[in-house]
Model the fold of this input.
Amino acid sequence: MKTLVLNAGSSSHKAALFDFAKGETALWRSQLDWTHQAGRVELTAQTADGRQHQAVLATEDKTTGLRWMLDTLVEGPVQVLSALNEIKAVGHRVVHGGRDYQQSIPITPAVKATIQQLFPLAPSHNPANLQGIEAMESILAAVPQVAVFDTAFHAQMPAAASTYPGPYEWVEQGIQRYGFHGVSHRYVAHRTAELMHCELSDLQLITCHLGNGCSLSAIRDGISVDTTMGFTPLDGLMMGSRSGSVDPGILFYLMRQDHCTPDELDTLLNKAAGLKGISGLSNDLRQVLEAAEQGSDRAQLAFDMFIHILRRQIGAMLGSLGRLDALVFTAGIGENSATVWQAACQNWEFLGLQLDPAKLQRSSTDQDIAAAESKVRVYVIHTQEEWAIAQDCLKILGA
Done:
């Protein structure tokens, strides 16, 4: 079954095409990016056999851009299909499923209505996700679609972990810890079990999704029992441009002293904080580390804070586990930064965790970077969110 996976964002769309007869390697991948040129969208695409294509189109319309992207599947230098009707399913990453959806589900008008109702909980994500769904409905009208929710993996957290210590009316309003990056946490947990030759239900893990957005999950016997992101993706770890957890009293102070509006606070905490805010340079950790090496005190502080908060939250996740079988790093920073692996694993020697100095380098394959005698395994795993979404489509819609 040929399955198209779409991850639609506010300013970029990523897509991948899988054929289950040919395994988990995508036949074709493409991305649309509206961020670089006003009124124009940039397309990049590549195939499993190494062909590449880049182009620019003058449009701001997302559906037009997606239609143009899909045309590369059937014509031009990265063609992999004879016709679009070879696509038998479309899977969508949807960030917020609220309490309504605790697993992946076929998309219906009712599902679309619920995704829209959840706009206030994920204003930067759910509107773009719904727009992608509706665009695919117009382009591939007869093809069934599946919504795969980032929040679903965390839906079985115990109430003590998911409930905020405010008035009980918050519970009745649906104000709770939902957690995000669930597709990634779920994939790397299963991949860890595969690498350890164990059943996931027998393992206790901490998975670290570290990219521009960052979150941890404590996974006990295959179930996410705690996570760092909360009601929104703003909670928890320090991130690229997001603050992560801060004292709510700071917000009251800014509202009273600086007369900040809710929209200004939203922008401040989501787009002007984190690595970018502290370093004054960038949300890209690579640039922050480079500046730190050149003597920037602010860049060094940003990195030191990133690691301090990461280790603090790893410790918090330990409280929900009876032991730790493996610590797992994934996503852009987690898959590529040996500096972060080393720094994050410092001070855990009392758990019997030891790294192998010979393995502290990037690899194109998933790897165990722990020393042979380490009592805790440490894995670096390339997250395959699109493949996980495609697998859900197969399970739900059948071959």
Q: What stands out?
A: The domain at 198-385 is CATH 3.30.420.40 (Nucleotidyltransferase; domain 5). The chain has a mean pLDDT of 93. Residues 14 and 238 are 25 Å apart (CA to CA). The longest helix spans residues 297-318.
